[in-house]
Amino acid sequence: MSAESPERERRPHVVIVGAGFGGLTAAKALASADVRVTVIDRTNHHTFQPLLYQVATAGLSPSEIAQPIRGILGSQRNVTVRMAEASGVDLAERRVHLVGGDDIAWDYLIVACGAETSYFGHDDWSRSAPGLKSVEDALGIRQRVLEAFERAENDAVTGHPAQPPCLVVIGGGPTGVELAGALAELGRHVFRREFRGIDPSAAKILLLEAGPRILPSFSDDLSKSAVAQLADLGVEVRTGARVSAIEPGVVVLEHDRLACSVVLWAAGVAANPLTRRLGPPLDPTGRVVVERDLSIPGHPRAFVIGDAARFDGPDGHPLPGVSPVAMQQARAVARSIRRSVGGEAPLPFVYVDKGQLATIGRIRAIAMVGRIHLSGFVAWMAWLLVHIFYLIGFKNRVVVMIVWAWSYLTYRRGSRLIIAREAPRLR
Amino acid sequence: MSAESPERERRPHVVIVGAGFGGLTAAKALASADVRVTVIDRTNHHTFQPLLYQVATAGLSPSEIAQPIRGILGSQRNVTVRMAEASGVDLAERRVHLVGGDDIAWDYLIVACGAETSYFGHDDWSRSAPGLKSVEDALGIRQRVLEAFERAENDAVTGHPAQPPCLVVIGGGPTGVELAGALAELGRHVFRREFRGIDPSAAKILLLEAGPRILPSFSDDLSKSAVAQLADLGVEVRTGARVSAIEPGVVVLEHDRLACSVVLWAAGVAANPLTRRLGPPLDPTGRVVVERDLSIPGHPRAFVIGDAARFDGPDGHPLPGVSPVAMQQARAVARSIRRSVGGEAPLPFVYVDKGQLATIGRIRAIAMVGRIHLSGFVAWMAWLLVHIFYLIGFKNRVVVMIVWAWSYLTYRRGSRLIIAREAPRLR
Lengths: 427, 427
Fold this sequence. Notes:
- The structure is a homodimer.
- The first copy, chain A, is of the alpha/beta class.
- Chain A has 2 domains: 6-42 and 84-118 and 270-341, FAD/NAD(P)-binding domain (3-Layer(bba) Sandwich); 125-267 and 356-410, 3-Layer(bba) Sandwich (FAD/NAD(P)-binding domain), CATH 3.50.50.100.
- Chain A has helices at 6-9, 21-29, 52-56, 62-65, 69-73, 125-128, 135-157, 174-190, 220-233, 323-341, 377-390, 394-410, and strands spanning 13-17, 36-41, 45-47, 66-68, 79-83, 86-90, 95-98, 103-105, 108-111, 115-117, 166-170, 204-208, 235-238, 243-247, 250-253, 256-259, 262-265, 269-271, 288-289, 295-296, 299-304, 309-310, 356-359, 365-369, 372-375.
- In chain A, strands 5-2-1-9-21-20 form a 6-stranded mixed β-sheet.
- In chain A, a hairpin with a 2-residue loop joins strand 24 (365-369) and strand 25 (372-375).
- In chain A, helix 2 runs parallel beside helix 10 (323-341).
- The longest helix of chain A has 23 residues, at 135-157.
- The first copy, chain A, is elongated.
- The model of chain A is unreliable at 1-7 and 421-427 (pLDDT under 50).
- The interface between A and B is large, with 72 and 72 residues.
């Protein structure tokens, strides 16, 4: 049964760090290659990150957007999956070091370790204003949001002064917009008829953006459309709102202090800190500045892809941290490895931009595909099809469709569970 | 919006502590009564406890067996739901005290606070051998089980001495049998093809029972059938196995020490400790010994139902802690309250025994309905229909059916997520 059997040892060993969109796609793209592959991830599941906001707002449950990595790759015989965390990489000795002391030798390395929430040096804000990068994050946010409504109701029915919660989302990118929209619907529709002391539809949802407009990666007209669609849902958007401090229950702006029940952080990400332990130059958000074939400068057999890589597109701007970039890069690196095994030179990576989408609540969205700009229901339909199509695992596609159909018909959300527990951690 | 508005105040106030099968059924049975009802629960969800073992063994996810209480009772206008924990009851002053200091006045009280895991005085065993009474418990068990396989695989592929995990379930009642059966299937079928270093089907599943036979509430022939069905699945049953100590990784029996990766406790329950703060006499497992109308002796307007009540059936044995008992008692108490409001005397509770069922893995079960004894697939079909039928919330019935159909066709389980987090608690 051993993965280290002599028969296998002859084949080059590809180690992939991270089982996000990039890592998983790379592993699959190496299915027919004459290599053995080890996929390392610190969790046992692949997370469909674009729908994390749905878990955070009780629309979907974790198992509907996360799939066991073993389940996805189990039938691919040249892959070994290990639940382990990489603590560092030795590029000269070609080894990945693991937390706990083990290490793994590689012939080819693909670093696909993704990004994490960044507070721009204010790490103390993370306690008061959680970010949204993992299932754990989403469950923590869901709990805070649900408890805010429960507390307000408890206060109201016991005669204490009470008002519906005020929920603040910091950061007007796609995640912030999606969160704010879904939160507004939670109070306005899902909770309707369920409270006696407070009016949940009067909950205040505030979206703060430091820059001059939300969704700056979209065109100006779509950005304006998003503000209008958010306003329809009851979300108040404030641009030019730079946060200077976050205290428990208070967000401090330059000229204002906002009292609030829940603060969520969607204002920034940086590459996973593993990149810092690689050695090569990083860009300001911690991404490895890679070669045109996505390899690490000076290390042609070590590649970085996805949110951990800095790769400038033809317009001179770095490619965005979205799944299509990671997946295209994964396939390019897999091709380069196959070529290298066969004695050929790698090819440079060429990105094909397929457009971008952001959803705003139940049936609203904006989309930009080349010169085509869509907004409202049409954009939302496009968003729905793309996301269902990309959901990894057939069961999930079917179940998510049914759960959504049901939720959308009835405005009910079944995943509104407050589950408080301290989990034992892996040794 | 206030629940304490004068218009409502005229109606008698029924306070229900606990939103399990008993509390929820009582609230629903009072829908048309001229009372206002407050349902208190320390969680925000009703848990379908008979399927908790499915969450613990990754067959279902929490939102498929738990439903928000507000969602279930939201449209019943005479009900207020409060997420709060009762710390005590003053029967003379007719108040329920809440954790945090508030208290609630009642005209009628229904204590439906259920049972919790009991270690018979060995509370220190709870850390090494968790019980299964809540969604939190189930998630904790799921995590331990999945991590045991991940650890064994990690050891194996790094060349350490490794063997598939040994999982021990203590207690041969329905919960222990269901857990052991589902664990065996996890290793034998679900994990098949997914590991490279260990053979998960060689995982050892041990079911320990202190008494002379498992499932003692069933007839002797069904108990024997259960042992045979468990053996088919690969579960080793040991009767007469009295546990004298549980240490990390070791279960100590009278004449044996069993090294194991995971220990689960399904050997005992006792009433929720709230019953101790009521005052009236308790039976040895902490249940309130109630009158024939389920009221607390000397307190005709305060009732105890379900797992927290001790009520002897016509055969002189106490009624078992199962949902049909709690639900029948709930309807009887609701009827008594309606009669009391109308100036009539309460009626005694009469239990109608509809039989009992226990499932053993994927398509096996035993059932006893009066003189009819069923086992194997027929019993399992009966079990399936009864459980789907009773699942509260239509969405869940449909989704659970689909998830099961999918799982049963493919032996895949999508809910195998290891999610480690420390959850913030409600203030």
